[in-house]
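call fold(seq) -> tokens
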Amino acid sequence: MLEMKKLDKLLKGHKHICFLDFEGTQFSHEMIALGAVMATLDKKGAIKSTKLPYKVFVRAHNKIGNYVTNLTGITEDQLKEQGISFSKAMEGLKKYCGMAFSKCTFCTFGNHDMRILSQSIAYNFDFPKEIVSQIQKNYLDYSAFISEFIKDDKGNPLSLIHYCEKFEAEIVGPNHDPSSDAVNLCTLYNAFIKKSELVGEEYKKVLGNFSRVPEVVKPIIAKLLNGEEVTPREFDDEIKKFLS
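ret:
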């Protein structure tokens, strides 16, 4: 299937995925929390096993910001009491991944997490370069991948939670907790693998709404979406109409 071939290519042959979620400050976008779930894949790319989530709070050089505190529940006092340095958080992530760290895909939902990683590097000159480089080199934005096949009626990507709801997948909370978000991303990944028929039906809708589909093909796609059969002769007729 198209989606699996594309996913296999993005995974680069790796049999381990570390699902990640970072929370960052409001203005400087430094990391203040990290959540991760390590998964091992079977031969078909489905999740065979997972480790218990890894979660740490990370001390930032700049203020969290009221908006982020209200959104995540993370406070300045919490970072002072429970936070560790960015370097130790990265070293802890590597230890959590174990021997698979160098043969692992690091998966986030959206590219904002990578912005948080980059901003954290900018404020921490002693960061572990090899660890960060490994994450950046083997990074997969799952939102960009799944949104090629499933969108809303207006052609926009869904949120992580709405994608989970689309697949009727179990959702854990609270929202904007990094370990919960990492777990939900892991669940979404597996639901996408397991429910290929649903993916196919949703992809038909995406093709039907795709504005750049050649005009000559649109009537054919419309019939197929309505469950009608289309013969090669009908396709030839549509081409003749279009060219006449």
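The CA atoms of residues 171 and 190 lie 13 Å apart.
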